[in-house]
Structure formats: structure tokens, C-alpha cells
Amino acid sequence: MEDDGEKEELIGKDPLEIQKMGVSLSFVPEDRLGMGLVGNMDLSDNMMLRSFREGRSVFTDRRHPHELAEKVVEELEVNTPSVSTMVRRLSGGNVQKVLVGREISSAPKVLLTAYAVRGLDINSSYTIYDLLNRQKESGVAVVYVGEDLDVLLELADRIVVLCGGKVSGTVDGRTADKNEVGLMMTRLGGGSELA
After folding, report:
1. Measured at the alpha carbon of residue 54, what is the angle toward residues 49 and 55, in degrees to the nearest 5?
2. Which of 96, 107, 111, 171 has the CB geometry, 3.0–4.6 Å to 176, for a possible disulfide?
3. Phi and psi angles of residue 101, each rounded to the nearest 5 degrees, phi first
4. In CATH, what number is assigned to the domain containing residue 65?
């Protein structure tokens, strides 16, 4: 990260330290209802989970999260009776739309997603892919953690391949093929340097 022409290292800093440096981070975890959203809370209340630090008083601001929930439902076509519906009553695809919608609403500079479409139907998957591509086109650094090579080759500009918890290679996502990435996954074709 550059700050007034000087580079500052982000490695080793926790997310709050990085945020204090002015880098807006968003995270879409693999476990949607365990780490991302609270199943027994409604859509509006789940929107507050991202913005609770912005509160200025002891009273909770319920208007802005409610408006954000309505916006996410409308723009992402979330199938729900209302924003007062508990999240656990939604389908997996709709839960993921709510989570991704909440995270991108904060206009992040970096959006990290872990297995963003695991377990979703094809239509919900393509909705999520489209959202991630739109973020990328708007200048957001999207880090997509996944294992489906076809999807990675379609979405990624750059692919970092891990094997045994270590980087075994980096390839251009636009020119790589499945065999090349597959060999790196087994370390047969991968190096140890990060290009």
C-alpha cells in the first residue's frame, strides 16, 4: 500500500490495523450463517453487523440498515417475504446474495471471498459471479478463494496455486489452462516463487 508516495507493508497486520490505514476490507466467508450472518436475525439486523462501529450514540440506528436491506433485496432480487424475515428462512442462494450485498455496500477496496458459490444452484452462482465481476470492473481488488478450475480460469486475472499450504505457482488467469494449474496443484509443474 502506498501512502504519500511511500509504501507500507500490509503483511503481518490484522484487519483493524489495515482498516486504520485507509484500506476498506470486506469479507464473504465460506460459512455464511456461522461467520457471515446471524440466522436468527432478520435481514435489517444483519445489515447492522457491518456498520455497528459507525454508531454515534447509545441508541441503535435502525433506519439505515433497513434501507440497505431493502436496497439489497431489490437490486439483487433476493426472494424473501420482507426484510423482517429471519435469514435462516431463506434459501442458500438468497442468504449468499444478502451477505455479498451487505459486504459490497461498504464500497471496499479489497473484497475477499471464500468459496462464494459452494452449494448454490447455477442461477445463484451466476448472480454471485456477476456481482464479483462488477466489483472487479469498478476497481475493487477481488480475492476469490475457490477450487473449481473452470470458474477460476473464467473469473481470475491472476491465479495463485497452493499445495500443502504453500504457494506452488502463479499464472495469468487469462492464458492459463487446466493442465498447467493442475500440475501446480500437485507441485509437479509449480515453482516456489510468487510472480
Report:
1. 90
2. 171
3. -60, -45
4. 3.40.50.300
Sign of the Cα torsion 137, 74, 22, 26 reads negative
With respect to residue 6, please indicate whether it lies within any of the assigned structural domains: no
Q: Give dist(CA 141, CA 151) in Å, integer.
A: 17
The contacts of residue 52 (CB under 8 Å, 6+ apart) are: none
100: left (phi over 0), alpha (psi -120 to 50) or beta: alpha
12-32 confidence digits (pLDDT tens): 888 778 878 888 889 999 999
Instruction: Write out pLDDT tens, residues 86-109.
Output: 999 999 899 999 999 999 998 899
Nearest-10 crossing angle of helices 92-104, 63-75: 120
68 and 19 fall within a common domain: yes
Asked if 6 and 90 touch (Cβ cutoff 8 Å), the reply is no
The pTM assigned to this predicted structure is: 0.80
Contact present, 105 and 53 (Cβ < 8 Å): no
Whether the CA torsion 97, 99, 103, 105 is positive or negative: it is positive
Residue 36, domain extent: 15-146
SS3 at position 110: strand
Name the CA radius of gyration of the chain, rounded.
18
Distance of CA 26 to the CA centre of its chain: 6
Cα separation of 136 and 125, whole Å? 17
**In this structure, how many other beta carbons lie within 10 angstroms of the beta carbon of residue 93?**
20
